[in-house]
Design goal:
Layout (H helix, E strand, L loop, with lengths): L2 H13 L9 E3 L11 E13 L4 E16 L4 H18 L8 E9 L3 E3 L5 E16 L6
Parallel strand pairs: 1-2
Antiparallel strand pairs: 2-3, 3-6, 4-6, 5-6
């Protein structure tokens, strides 16, 4: 299995605890507006690499974590920031995802929230960005 896939799978697994009182689901796809809210989606961004040695690459994989909530307009910030707090706390505890080829995970930023005020409830979607740095071999992205 490619190391990027292992990272995404492990990151997703580590956020499943959110289903216990914080969100309806944690998925590894883009968010479908028909799904139940609140929802967290883990998505892969760019995966850049540079040569470290003749045998090894050092990668920087961007992981996006989209948070989507649908609540009354007075609760938008509270609901979104409660979920964000739990995600950030878990990422701080992840300790390199317990994968020996990962050497650092850092929170990069939160994108500007997108709001939609149509209908009875308001929706808000925002994106958290994390950088996962890892090593791979030149001749085998799985090793």
């Amino acid at each position: 299995m490619h190391k990027a896939r292992e990272i995404i799978n492990r990151f997703h697994e580590q956020l499943l605890f959110l289903k216990e009182g914080y969100v309806a689901d944690v998925v590894k796809t883009d968010i479908d507006t028909e799904q139940e809210f609140p929802l967290v989606s883990v998505l892969m961004g760019p995966d850049t690499r540079e040569e470290l040695t003749k045998e090894m690459y050092q990668h920087q994989l961007t992981l996006y974590t989209d948070i989507s909530v649908r609540v009354g307009k007075d609760s938008l910030y509270e609901a979104m920031l409660d979920i964000r707090e739990q995600i950030e706390l878990r990422v701080l505890q992840m300790q390199k995802l317990d994968l020996d080829f990962v050497f650092r995970i850092t929170f990069q930023n939160m994108g500007e929230p997108e709001y939609n005020g149509e209908g009875v409830d308001y929706t808000c979607k925002t994106r958290l960005e994390f950088m996962v740095e890892y090593f791979s071999q030149h001749d085998n992205p799985s090793a």
